[in-house]
Amino acid sequence: MGIDGIILIAGGLGLFLFGMRIMSSGLQAIAGDRLHGFLQKATSNRFLGVFVGIVATVALNSSTASTVMTVSFVNSGLMNLTQSIGIILGANVGTTFSGQLVAFRVDAYAPIFIFVGVIMYAFIKDTRIKNIGYVILGFGILFFGITTMGGPLRGLGQLPEFREFLVNFSNPFLAILAGFAFTAAVQSSTAATGVLISMHVLGVPIPFETSAFIILGTNIGTSITTLIASIPANRESKRAAIFHIGYDIIGSAIFGTLIFLVPSILGWFEATWYGDTARQVAMFHTLYNVATMLMLLGFIGPIAKLLYKIVPSKATETDKTYEKKLIYLNLTNQAAQLPNIVVNAAHKEICRMGSIANKNLKLSIDSFFEKDIEKANKVLENEKVVNYLNQEITSKLVSVNSMRLSPNDAERVGKMFSILSDIERIGDHAENIAEYTKFIKENSLKFSDDAKEELKILSDTTIKLAKAALSAFGSQNPAKLPEIEELEETVDKLSKDFAQNHVQRLKTGCCDPKCGVIFVDMITDLERSGDHANNIAFSVQ
């Protein structure tokens, strides 16, 4: 084989992998905004969890994407370990869909798919149609890559040196290692299996037994990405990742041993799909994963208990809420490429920032009434975390805007910029109140009983409003909006009434002018905090 043939094989392989990536990206854009809610429907019902895992993986065209997304949800507290086990079981079955698709031998129609995809993507304005066109374009590029590799690979298959090279992979351990290494390199068992089946479609003389062991290796290789994704995550996510790699290793070991000891298993595939080696490999991939899933389906509960023993909970685990770093947006490269994961991680990170700002507002008010300098200083320290998170999350959202987002995710990201500003302003008002505390303490100022009572009423109402607003944003539930609107109107009315009362006290000399200035500023800070909280809540509309 000359240099031209090698270039064609390399280029065809590149087109195949690129087409696979485009398909996944397009499917993510089409289904991404629905996947978050769909995945969370995976309750402790193991059968529903498996079904959700299968559907999500087919929709994303990647078991790696769905399992990394699952680990992300576990890390965010949106899903528990038992739910994630069911989804991972289903994901390994769902990933076989692409292999079956490649085995249909439609590479001759690749130019038609490319033409239709380009027309839909380039000339139609409707976003959903464009995304569907993007998927079709990826599908066409994938099969065009197979066509490009066809001639050189067929020639390669006839070379005695290549046939001798394939003999080395008759060793099951080497075949498994090859599948593992290639999958870990491309970070996609879907792509690795697709390439293997494509070689059979093109007539490359790879023995079916060798391909079966390579398939076992690809299943192990795909779990490496999930394991990497769990490294910065919490211990619950690490348990899910350990289950994924353990499940693949155990399944491959059991079925590898069965194939080695009972060769008639592979003989059945060869006899059933006689003469079609591509279909034999695709069916082995599917039935192996279905069998492994069924083997473990009845043991999800005991497996979860075992994982808690392998990765026990730490009694001294600290609360990371106030750490000056991103927790939920601290994603691996693989997870960071999935728009739905990043958007939902940003939502969780913003909720964390909102929680800090709200607690800081409450702490600043406590410091004010208690004249507690220590609490006031704590408010100022926490405000640094709020400012840090505001800058870091904003930076991440700017990057997210350049990704291929679904219409729903694009709208959510647009709103997030405004919400960050509102939360940051609540933090600023808490900081102002903490400064009032220090000024009052240093100057030994005293408020009248009426002034203190009014500020207490307004403060309590504002805190209640801010808490309800963050809850509505966190759950994305508009049901609380009427209550929040009523609270905001109450804060506005109280602010106006108490300001008028303050003027009357000044006229009668019942109020120290210095205290009066702080009283007015305090009312302003609380009233504006209420406005910002109201903005946060009504972003869910």
Could you characterize the architecture of this molecule?
With 541 residues, the protein is mainly alpha-helical. It is elongated, with a radius of gyration of 30 Å. 82% of the residues lie in helices and 0% in strands. It is built from 22 helices and no strands. Helix 6 (110-123) packs antiparallel against helix 7.
Task: Provide the descriptors you would attach to this structure in a database record.
22 helices, 541 residues, mainly alpha
Quick summary:
The protein has helices at 3-40, 46-60, 63-75, 81-94, 96-102, 110-123, 127-158, 160-167, 172-186, 189-201, 208-230, 235-261, 264-272, 277-297, 300-310, 333-336, 339-370, 373-400, 407-443, 449-475, 481-508, 513-537.
